[in-house]
Amino acid sequence: MSKLDFTDPALLDALAAALTAAGVDGIEIEQSSRTLRLVVEGKTPRATVRPHAGHASAADIITAPMAGIFDLDTIPSELPRTVRAGDILACLRIGPVLVPVRASKACTVTRCLVVADTLVGFGDPLFDIEAHP
């Protein structure tokens, strides 16, 4: 997946429209230090966004497909867990909407990198995996 260009006005308009529809009142993005701050209904949700440091390669992790609150309540979360491509590992909560986080390939999910109910940003690492041949 390619990186988003937050200097593109069309991308910013689309992002603003999607976040407004999800009930987000404000957003702050600072790429150099990987800061992301969303404001929902006038309150700042708990947020922890970490850099990708400490991971061998992008092939060994599953990342967030978009910004949202990391939700493990709807999915069995016992690890390690063997999954198939397309299986739902967790959800991202954006207002009343749950967006599934899916395995991109058959793998064993070895570790969850994010605490439940934490705000994550697009591309943030969520799970360590071991791919199946």
Q: How would you describe the overall organization of this protein?
A:
This is Acetyl-CoA carboxylase. InterPro entries: Single_hybrid_motif. This protein has 2 domains: 9-55, no CATH class; 59-131, OB fold (Dihydrolipoamide Acetyltransferase, E2P) (Beta Barrel). The chain is mainly beta and 133 residues long. The protein has one helix at residues 9-21; strands spanning 24-30, 35-40, 61-63, 68-71, 81-83, 88-94, 97-102, 107-112, 119-120, 125-131. Residues 42-57 have low confidence and may be disordered. It contains 1 helix and 10 strands.
Main CATH class of the largest domain: Mainly Beta
CATH architecture of the largest domain: Beta Barrel
- Name the overall outline: globular
Low-confidence stretches: 42-57
Query: Taking Cα atoms only, what radius of gyration do you get, to the nearest Å?
Result: 15 Å
CATH topology of the largest domain: OB fold (Dihydrolipoamide Acetyltransferase, E2P)
Provide the residue-averaged pLDDT.
Answer: 76
SS elements, strand count: 10
Instruction: Going across the biggest sheet, name each strand in turn.
Output: 3-10-8-5
| Structural class by SSE content | mainly beta
Structural domain count: 2
- Helix-strand sequence: HEEEEEEEEEE
Distance between the termini: 21 Å
Largest sheet report = 4 strands, antiparallel
CATH H-level homologous superfamily name of the largest domain? RNA polymerase II/Efflux pump adaptor protein, barrel-sandwich hybrid domain
